[in-house]
Structures are given as structure tokens and as C-alpha cells.
């Protein structure tokens, strides 16, 4: 696998950081997740529990091992430093400055391991006027401008339910760490890789950003209609809505053909995209007069066969039973020795030669402490002592 | 830079693929964007134009060179094959099977260049029952389940305005290509890297996915309220709303302190998160009775100082004037020789040793054709002939 043999010290918790280190683990890295001996990653106590185990925690921590360490003790910090000295990368999502306060300044890290790559995720960036602010996905959604673009045309700015800024930042950070490993492999040095919740989400604003930068004007929220294309959106079939997205004139003509509406080709009201935007509602009425006569399944087959992008609006139970999702192995099951089968979403990255795979179930809190300490050279008596003193 | 010297043949267009190849270019790769001589990437004609140039196109194509090639001609395909033979990776976002029809089967690509990494983005994946369907971001939002999670509590499933599935897939594909380059650098082979709009978005469903997999029940849309935490959401200050996100009891107490509402600590209605969820509206009334008395700016400073994540809901013009965004250089300007200054969002990935930087402005259509052909060994007369025959 691409990262086989690389060792990652994982000081992350909650979502963005654990997602990043899981992406690295999925690509083959040996990730050691450091957790506090008392309660560990807060996600262990959140979300739906099955057999006493959080599937929310599980979904971000497969393929990792867990080592408990009390980092408030000198002994705990000493063990962390020994791990850092023999690792390739460290990943963390503390607030900027916290690593320094733990005694792990950039200088100290370089001293411990000159080749170390340090991947950091923060809310707003490592410096600047807001760097010290506490951060949270919802705040990043609000301050990146994302919320201002999400929502119905007549509704308020809307957060999206998934922790979008955390996930984007985690994915960027994984890209940065792998890029930095590649640079080091080609003769480069260790370095600091960082990204933030806000910056990542800003980089996802797409044409909303470029149009605003060009015009100075904010985009308008448009709900399920596209602000620049018509027809586009949800259309009623006899048994529910279908999403239809003809992106240009050529696909629009395919849509008319598939619906037996070719008479509309000559209709002046729908001559080109600009005319169709002006006459969105009459066009919707024409289309729905046809789509309402048959089922979603009928139209989805017919429109796809005719080259028109379309599909049902699936809720999550449907998604996880969808034949394509199952074919793509986007639901996988880890067999946890203590908690039984744990289901989670699969690997969106498919590598033909070195595929991502489930090598380890999500770890119990400190479940690999003994093995990792032994590997660091602590004998059984020493490990017992560390445990007795509450260090691990 | 991490990818300096790596050559990428870029057959992508529109959003997901160009975003992927731009991420590779931002990390230092030499990306040659192949475009049709007649009109090039459709994005060149979309979005806001400044001095005749699409800033939408610009935002996904900095740091690349453009080579026009008519791939319907044998000569055009021959030039493409010469480029492929001397490149490290090829990136494409055609529908599965199109590359084969162009004569570039996996076998042919391996013959041309055994070490080649091929990065592919499709709508639904390279195989399976929906593989051949035409795809589009909106359809991926609908079929991944994302739309079912986005929207107001009393509203319909809602698409989000940004082309989210395209961008996630582009970012995953970049991670995969860099991972495959690293694997090859460490003694591996060329390989196929692929991802899809739907699979990428499914991997972003977070606790909505894990809870559904655990319980079988779909999540409920909850608009700007969090389904599991209270208080949480938008609260009215005297001059507009502020987003406030106290994630746990400790931060909730900090919020009460910052608002001079510590008397509520003893209030049975708000004893713990479960009680606060039941009494969300009375708690909102208590909080807003205070927040309405002063401005957004006042509360944002006060709450941040007290350790409570909060912020304004910014629209995009505000975002691009925000001091933190500017400090992080999240708005950058390319100086295009023909079209003047072109503004776009910056680099969310910060690498201390090998930073991403703007090396080239977004290219004119075919603007680098001559240079690239010369580099491939075509002399001036040959280049003139290719141009006269409409091949380039």
C-alpha cells in the first residue's frame, strides 16, 4: 500500500483530525492514536451505540491502534517523545499554540526528529487575528460564507447537517501529509503542513466565489433550482420527485425527446437557456404534466437511457441498500472481537494496484497500549508500573 | 515542491477533474491541459467574465498549461500518446468507457507507459449497475443521501448550491494520485486510481451515516438547530444574527458566564443537554433577551474571549474582505498578460517547507501549444502543418 511502513503519531480527536489520520491509515500507514486513559476520544461517548460501542467513533477510527497516555505527566510526555522520534508524521487538531504548551514546539519536534512531518488542522489558520478563537464546524460554515449560499430562495442562510468543514479540512490535511512524505522521499526535509476549517470551505465556494470576486455581488440562494440553468431541479413523478439536471441545450433536447415533448423545441418561450430561465414555471408545468403520469422508476430508466442525468432523492436507509452503493462496497463491516460486527461507509478511493482495505477494527480505548509499549522497549514490569501510576 | 518535475496529462473538463489537476499543479506538478481546438473547456464560456475571461474557468485552471488537440484525428491522438509516454500520470473525468473508445484502454496505456498512474473521476464508479449513467453534481447530491440531510426541519430535501460532490471527488482523486506516486517512488508500479461523485459524498455523511447504519432510521433534517445539542444555532443580536455553538456542558457554562446568565445554571429546565433539548425555545428566549441588547461585534468579541465558539454569518463579499481570510491569503491575484488581474481563492493547504504558489496564470485556450509541441520534437514547419490541418 502507498503508506505501508510509515508511522503516524495521531494526537487528533473528534472529527477533522481523526478523519485525516484514518485516510492515511486506509492508505496503509501505521497510525497510533493517543488517547487519555480516563475517557479517550469524546466521540467514543457520542452517536448511536451498538453492543456498547459508538459506531460514530468507529466510522473515523478503523485501521488505527489506540495507546492511552496521560500527557499531563512527564512520563506520559516522555513516551510520546519516544514515539515521535521514531515516526514519520504527527497529526493534530488542537487549537494553535496548544502543542507548544505541551512542550512540543516546532524546535523541540525538529530536535526529536528532523524528518518529522507535522500535519495540523485548526479552525481559522495557525496565525492571524482569529487564530486563537475556539472553532467549531458550525462557526466555520457561517464565517466561510458557505451558509450564505445554502438554503431556500425565500429562507434564511442554512447550515448543512454534516460537519462539512471538518471533513474538507481532514481530506486536505491528508493530501498535504502524503505530499510532504513524497517531497521527503525525493530528498526533501520534514515540514509543517496545515489547513483550517474555514480556508478549506472557502476553497469549495466554486462559481459563487469567482462570480463574487468578479462582480462584488453576493450569490442568491436558489434552493433546488439552479441559478443559471433551466429546467433543473425536482420534478414530480406519480410516486415522488425525481432530480433532473439537463446541463446544456443538447441535454435539454434529449430530455424533450425522452418525454415525447419535442413539440416544445419550436416554442419561443423555451428557445434558449435565458428564455427558459424567464419561463421556468410554465416549462416546469409542461414537464410535470408528463412526468406525473408514470413512476419514478419508469422515468429514471427512460431518461438515463436517453442520456439525461437524473435520479431519485434517496434517504440514508435507501442509500445503504442501493445496488450501486453495495457494488462499490461503500458499506463495509469490521468484525470487532468484543463488540461484534460494526458497519461503516467504505473507501471512496479505489486504487487498482494497492487498494485500501480494512486491516483492523476500530480500537478499544488503549487496546494496543501493551503491544506499543513493548515495541518501544518497555518490559512487562515497566508496563505494569506505568499502568499502576495511571500514566497509560 | 512535492510534485516538482512530475508531468500530468490532463484530459479533464468542467469542475471535478480540473479541480483535481489544479491541486496537483498547486503542489508543483507540470500539468498539460488538453482542450479541443474549437472551444476548449466549457467552463471558459461560463460564469462571470472580466476582460473577456471567465473567472470561473480561471479558478480551476491556474498553474496549468493548455495544449489544443483534436482527439478525433489520428494525428491528434498520436500527439496525445507521445505526451502520455513521457508523463507520470493522466487525469480524466470522462464517463467510464470513453477512454477505451478513444483507443486508450488500460492495456494500451500500460503499453505506452508501464509506470503511468491514471486518475479517473466518474459519477457512480467505474462499474456496477449505474456506471454508464450520465452524471451530474445535483444527481449525486440526490442519490448519495446528502440532499435528504440538508434543509429546514419543515422543508423539503435541499441541494446545496456549491458543486459539493465534484469538489470532494476532485480532492479524493488528488490524494489518490499523490499516494500512487509515492507508492511508485517506493518501488511500486503504475496503477489506476478512481473515485466517484456519489462515493465521495457518501463518505462525508458522518454521524448521519453511522447512526443510520446502527439504527436503520434516517436522520431528520433540523435546519440551523443541531439534532443532538442545545443551545446551538443562530441567535439575534441588536444588528443581526450570530452563530453560537456550545458543544458540551463545559462550553455551555462558559456561554452563561459570558452572557451574565449564570443564574440559569441552577435552572432545572436546562440541567443537562437532554433537558435543554426539551426546552430549546425557553432557553433561546433567555439567551436572546440578553443578546438582543448589544451588537454582533460586541458579543462575538465577548463570547470568543470567554471560550465560546461563535461568529457572524458572512456573505461572500464580507468573506473576501475579512481580515483573517486576507491574512491567510485566501484571495490571490494572478496577473494574466492578456486579461489583466484575475482574482481567485487561495491555497487552503499551507506547507512550511514547500509552499503552494501561483506559478502560472490560468492559460488561454491552446496558449502553450507551440511550446509543448516544440518540446515534443515538432519543428516550426511541422507545427504550422498541424495548425493548418486543424489538429491543434
Descriptive notes:
The structure is a homodimer of 392-residue chains. With 392 residues, chain A is an alpha/beta fold. Chain A has 2 domains: 7-204 and 325-388, Rossmann fold (3-Layer(aba) Sandwich), CATH 3.40.50; 233-313, 2-Layer Sandwich (formyl-coa transferase, domain 3). In chain A, 38% of the residues lie in helices and 16% in strands. The first copy, chain A, is built from 18 helices and 14 strands. Chain A has helices at residues 16-26, 55-58, 74-85, 98-101, 106-112, 137-143, 146-149, 164-185, 197-202, 206-215, 249-258, 273-278, 280-291, 296-305, 316-319, 323-327, 369-375, 380-388, and strands at residues 7-10, 30-35, 49-50, 53-54, 64-68, 89-92, 117-122, 192-196, 233-237, 240-244, 310-312, 331-336, 340-345, 350-351. In chain A, the strands form 4 sheets. A 6-stranded parallel β-sheet of chain A has the order 5-2-1-6-7-8, sandwiched between helices. In chain A, strands 9-10-11 form a 3-stranded antiparallel β-sheet. In chain A, strand 9 and strand 10 form a beta hairpin. In chain A, helix 1 (16-26) packs across helix 8 (164-185). Chains A and B meet through strand 3, helix 2, helix 6, helix 7 and helix 8 of A and strand 3, helix 2, helix 6, helix 7 and helix 8 of B.
